[in-house]
Each structure stands twice: as structure tokens, then as C-alpha cells.
Amino acid sequence: MDDDIARHLQHLEVERRLAPRTLAMYGEAFDRLRTFAGKHPVGLREVQVHHVRRWAAQLHAQGLAPRSIAIVLSAWRGLYRWLGRDGLVALNPVDGVRAPKAAKPLPKALPVDQAMALADHRSDEDGDARLHARDHCIVELLYGCGLRVGELIGLDIGASSRAAGWIDAADATAHVLGKGSKRRSVPVGGAALKALRAWLEVRGDIAKPGSRRSSSASAARALRPASCVRA
């Protein structure tokens, strides 16, 4: 076992000319392989797929990160490919074994003050106070209530059989239809309620009946009396 690993490391250093840091990582990976095989016990050339799967699972259980496990498996895979090239093993036991998927990090939320500044900048470019009221309302509801965009655009100002969600201003709550068609209720803060009232006061002026914008079916649906933020 030690002889096979030593010869492979020499191959990586001399023929492949891997960097010292990479060689060190491969050496650590082979130390893990030597330890697992010794505890089983099984000879290096007799390792099978089920052994590798079990050892990869043990590395994960020990807290090794998915990326680090992937590096270990890559080193093992290269070793057995090299042994197979010389006819020393009949198959590569690491082929088809993959590291567990790494959890995707949550996107970093834009700070509220930056989001508000972005909405103000857009409104300033449009030069329309009504759009400023709309964007201010949107930001307050998204950040103040923790709503998803899909939940936000489905909000009405009152409950109805056609409403996907609505805001109960008197109770300061928003009732939304989230993922999996599951309903949930979230509190609406004072700042969000104030922004909502300011938006509703001017909302009807953006696309009045008979205007060019109100002629499309999508605008007609968005401008029904109960609609809260859609325009």
C-alpha cells in the first residue's frame, strides 16, 4: 500500500509537476485512504466501490466539508486510474462516487437603507412622486414583512375569494400564499402601513380608466379596485 502511494506521489511530482501545495493535499487524501483501508482491513488494490462510498460517508459524518471530500475523492480516483493503467487493478472503485452537494448559501440581503436609496434614485430619475410612493411601499413590505416577491405582487387590500393574499390594515397583518400554496400570516409594521396608505392615495392616478395603459388586459387585472401594489 505504502509503495503504491509513494510511487504515485512521485509520478505526480515528477511527471505531472504538481505544485507543492497540491501534492500536500493529495498526500493528506492518501493518508485518509491508508487509514480507512487499514481499519477495515482491506488491501489498497482490493478496495471496492462500497468501501469508497462508506468512507466518503464517514468523512461527511466527521464534519469534512463537501468541497474537501470532493478533493479527497479526486485524489483517490486519480490513484486508481494510474494503477489501472498499469493493470494493477481491474476497476476504479472511485468512479461514480460523488461528494455530497454543498449547501447553497443564502443570498445576501440588501440593507434596508440601501434598498430605500435605490428606490429613491429610480423615482428621482422618473420624476414622479407617485412612483416614489409605490417603490417606497414595495420596499417597506418586502423588508418589513419578509415577503417574497411572488407574495408581494399577489397582495390585495381586502380579503376575497379571488385574492391570493391581502393586507388587513386594521389588524396590521398580511396574509399571503407562499411556496407549496401554503398560507401564512405576518405582521405589518407601522412604517409599512404608512407607506401603504401613501401609495393607495395616489395609486389610482397612474392609470385611470380610459387611458392607453388601462386598455391592456394585464393592466385591467392589476388595476382592479382591490389591488394593493400592482400597477
The CATH superfamily of the largest domain turns out to be Intergrase catalytic core
How many strand segments?
Answer: 4
Return the domain count: 2
How is the largest sheet built, in terms of strand order? 1-2-3-4
The H/E string reads HHHHHHHEEEEHH
Shape: elongated
Q: How widely separated are the two ends?
A: 71 Å
Topology overview:
Layout: H1 2-14, H2 20-39, H3 49-61, H4 66-85, H5 112-126, H6 129-145, H7 149-153, E1 155-156, E2 165-168, E3 173-177, E4 183-187, H8 190-203, H9 217-222
Parallel strand pairs: 1-2
Antiparallel strand pairs: 2-3, 3-4
Helix pairs in contact: 1-2, 2-4, 5-6, 6-8
Describe the structure.
- With 231 residues, the chain is an alpha+beta fold.
- The chain folds into 2 domains: 2-85, DNA polymerase, domain 1 (Orthogonal Bundle), CATH 1.10.150; 112-222, hpI Integrase, Chain A (Orthogonal Bundle).
- 53% of the residues lie in helices and 7% in strands.
- Strands 1-2-3-4 form a 4-stranded mixed sheet.
- Helix 5 runs antiparallel to helix 6.
- It starts with a helix and ends in a 9-residue tail after the last helix.
- Residues 210-226 have low confidence and may be disordered.
Give a quick rundown of the structure.
By secondary structure, the chain is of the alpha+beta class.
State the main characteristics:
2 domains; four-stranded mixed β-sheet; DNA polymerase, domain 1; 53% helix; 7% strand; 4 strands; 231 residues; alpha+beta; hpI Integrase, Chain A
